[in-house]
Predict the structure.
Amino acid sequence: MHAENVIELGKLLNVNLTLSEIDIVHRMNVKSKNQPGPIIVRFANYNAKSQLYKARLHLRSAFSQDLGPGKIYINENLTEWRAELFKEVGKVRKKYNNGRAWTIDEKIFFKPELTAKALRIDSYEGG
């Protein structure tokens, strides 16, 4: 059921996915009864995951009526520790006008400015 949704999302982002590239898809539980839970996908191969994750940047230009109600985000499923670290990096990022933070393969990166070199963040520093 949800695998077809992932394939359709891939088509909108110009990523050709097949059922054989999707291992497991299920909806996560949420506290709100008014919103559907996020869908989590485990891919059968790294290439399929990587293509869809890179294409997430094109979600901004996709038409919302093509994607259904509400906003769609494509995020990595980080470990609890990395998710908390990424949240803290996000707080620091807000102090910079052009700061950027992102993850790739559970690695966290941060750029305080567009022209700055990306820094890999592996731990909390300075409390």
Summary: The two ends are 45 Å apart (CA to CA). The longest strand covers residues 22-27. DSSP finds four helices and five strands in the chain. Residues 43 and 49 are 6 Å apart (CA to CA).
